[in-house]
Write a structure and sequence with these properties.
Elements lengths: L1 E5 L2 E7 L3 H6 L1 H10 L3 E7 L4 H11 L3 H23 L10 H6 L9 E2 L3 E2 L3 E2 L2 E2 L5 H5 L3 H7 L9 H6 L2 H9 L5 H10 L7
Parallel strand pairs: 2-3
Antiparallel strand pairs: 1-2, 4-5, 6-7
This protein binds iron/sulfur cluster (SF4) (2 copies).
One iron/sulfur cluster binds next to loops.
């Protein structure tokens, strides 16, 4: 990682040869900038990276709750775009691709589950909450087996580097849960991330 600290700024020099290594050092960057309250500035040389730009934005939000809000909303937007563009659950008449094969009477995909019933936020087969990251992240084994579709928590740099193991578990497993509640859980588990 090539950087210098000058006038309360950490200036990062990024080129095609060091870009991957630089991203892999994000936890170190967070630690350095948070400890000394430095603003992160990136000087690109012949390359650009959306991941690094998102990392920079998150690092420069110094209030923890505001930073988590940014991360949560940004990752949800990425997931929404993917779901919208790829339409991998292929709902038809409220029945998803998996249940068309396994049990065509089962409507609403995984928003309704045996034993658990129907999610209270599902009204007229539409999700009225729209902010549950765990639901957006979830892909069932059928999707992986039949279509090679899988999402993992560490696929997203803002989650991979900014949260510890407990927080990742919270993000991945808080199904059917409004963002405000997830945010409280994240802040309550805000102990240091290891490099
Ligand atoms: S993740 Fe699987 S079970 Fe859930 S809606 Fe999509 S295809 Fe259906
Ligand atoms: S919160 Fe999750 S389970 Fe509930 S309706 Fe929305 S996507 Fe479905």
């Amino acid at each position: 990682m090539n950087y210098k600290i000058d006038n309360n700024k950490l200036i990062l020099f990024v080129n095609k040869d060091n870009i991957d290594k630089t991203i892999s050092k994000t936890k170190k960057l967070i630690r350095l900038c948070d400890k000394k309250n430095l603003e992160l500035v990136i000087e690109y040389d012949g390359v650009k990276s959306e991941d690094l730009d998102m990392i920079k934005t998150a690092i420069n939000i110094k209030n923890r709750e505001d930073r988590y809000n940014y991360i949560y909303d940004t990752v949800c937007k990425i997931l929404d775009d993917r779901i919208c563009n790829e339409n991998y659950c292929e709902f038809e008449n409220d029945v998803c691709i998996r249940f068309r094969k396994e049990n065509p009477n089962h409507k609403n995909g995984c928003c309704e589950w045996k034993g658990r019933g129907k999610c209270k936020y599902l009204i007229d087969s539409v999700c009225t909450m729209k902010t549950c990251m765990a639901c957006k992240l979830f892909t069932c084994p059928f999707l992986y087996k039949e279509k090679g579709i899988r999402q993992r928590i560490n696929d997203y740099v803002l989650i991979k580097y900014f949260f510890n193991k407990n927080q990742k578990y919270i993000l991945e497993c808080s199904f059917w849960t409004p963002k405000e509640i997830v945010m409280k859980r994240l802040l309550a588990n805000n102990f240091n991330i290891k490099e």
